[in-house]
């Protein structure tokens, strides 16, 4: 069995009396899409925040590529290859799509800060940035400001930025939100191909997307994982159907 890329053990986070993360353990293995589902307020985003480093866990461990990253900040985790996207937009709205991706390429290179006008013509940034835009189907819109892109195009741009970081794992928080049926189908196809680039922890309410994509599904309710398994196992679990899928068991 291959080693997990991401290994979460007994993670806990409270907001006053509320246990938002209540002893969560999960593994993300190479090539996998591991979906995290659960009702509103179950603690899915809180969990993603702790893994990404925007929120500090109260206790428990987060190992990424074999290393305990609990003490690292978000930037250090991103530098190691943990790419987070969606829900909170990472785009600089006034900058073109190309410039947004160039900034990500520059950040990945870890180069010391320079004013953008000094690097605007830098081929070592433009070429990889354009390649990312091509991959996500946005090359023709490279020079359009992010603010003028459609919702679906902004999602594509966010993926291009995530790809520019050469991620070793993706954390995606509700990528399908607001996409519409056709957009969701396209994004589902795209994410399906991405699993071979890096495994993905996917928080998603769109069950069609989850059931089409996930190798494993974990169900979170009140901060606890109440079930974990394949799509078929989760779909046929009577407790999950009762607690979350809204069906009579
Ligand atoms: N910073 C905070 N301070 C206090 N309570 C918080 C904070 N962040 C989240 N919570 C609470 O923690 C619980 C889990 O919230 P979280 O946003 O993680 O749920 P979720 O499963 O992502 O929900 P949704 O599906 O609606 O996005 C909720 O009860 C929420 O109100």
TrEMBL record:
GO molecular function (one): ATP binding
Domain ABC transporter: 6-247
Keyword Repeat: no
Coiled-coil boundaries: none
Keyword ATP-binding in annotation: yes
Pfam families linked to this entry: ABC_tran, BCA_ABC_TP_C
Gene Ontology cellular component list: plasma membrane
Entry keyword set: ATP-binding, Nucleotide-binding, Transport
Signal peptide range in chain numbering: none
InterPro entries for the chain: AAA+_ATPase (IPR003593), ABC_AA/LPS_Transport (IPR051120), ABC_transporter-like_ATP-bd (IPR003439), BCA_ABC_TP_C (IPR032823), P-loop_NTPase (IPR027417)
Name of the molecule in the record: Branched-chain amino acid transport system ATP-binding protein
Taxon lineage: Bacteria, Pseudomonadati, Pseudomonadota, Alphaproteobacteria, Hyphomicrobiales
